[in-house]
Design a protein that fits this description.
CATH architecture: 2-Layer Sandwich
Largest sheet: 7 strands, mixed
Order of helices and strands: EEEHEHHHEEHE
Oligomer: single chain
């Protein structure tokens, strides 16, 4: 069986970093929105091996890739023995805050359910997604939503229907974990009075 899926990017209409949580993550409140920019991902069943390819040299093809992690975790949680060959055609800029890796992981979890014919409840899928990455659960909903906690607790909102959106990304890549590490080093940036609209 072969499945091809679109994996949509997101923007944050707002992002408030409210402080450091006891688990080491930051407490967030954010309004998220999927946009019509997407990667194409194909999935094909194989015998026991997880293979990942991508033509973009800045995208890892090993266990550091969220799609790879999602497939490994899915197999661990469900006992599936099958493998998968995944090919990612990147259109979403990497390390641009657009959620490409998280979106890819969410799409992988949905596709693997179909490919390997393993039913998961919505709650089980959300739990798997949150274990892969904080933004992953949002991509099961799409549209407009508020994310709280680490960002993985998601509540759908009425869709924002902006007729046009111009998206400009710089020619530099910035890791989300590096951004949060910088915020941790400057706790004054997490003051409740410093909420940021992006």
């Amino acid at each position: 069986m072969n499945i091809e899926c679109r994996s949509y990017a997101k923007i944050n209409w707002t992002l408030e970093v409210l402080g450091l949580r006891p688990d080491g993550y930051h407490e967030l409140r954010t309004i998220l929105q999927t946009i019509n920019l997407y990667d194409l991902i194909s999935f094909e069943t194989t015998d026991g091996v997880i293979e990942l390819t991508c033509g973009d040299p800045s995208v890892p093809e090993d266990e550091s890739n969220l799609v790879y992690r999602a497939a490994v975790l899915f197999r661990q949680q469900t006992g599936v023995q099958s493998g998968v060959r995944v090919n990612i055609s990147k259109r979403i800029p990497v390390a641009a805050g657009l959620g490409g890796g998280s979106s890819n992981a969410a799409v992988a979890l949905l596709a693997l359910q179909r490919l390997w014919q393993v039913p998961l409840s919505p709650a089980e899928r959300l739990e798997l997604g949150a274990a892969v990455g904080a933004d992953v659960p949002f991509f099961f909903y799409g549209g407009t939503a508020v994310g709280v906690g680490r960002g993985s607790e998601v509540y759908p909102l009425p869709d924002v229907t902006a007729p046009h959106l111009l998206l400009v990304t710089p020619l530099i890549e910035i890791s989300t974990s590096e951004v949060y590490r910088a915020v941790r080093e400057r706790p004054e940036l997490t003051s409740k009075s410093l909420g940021a609209n992006i």
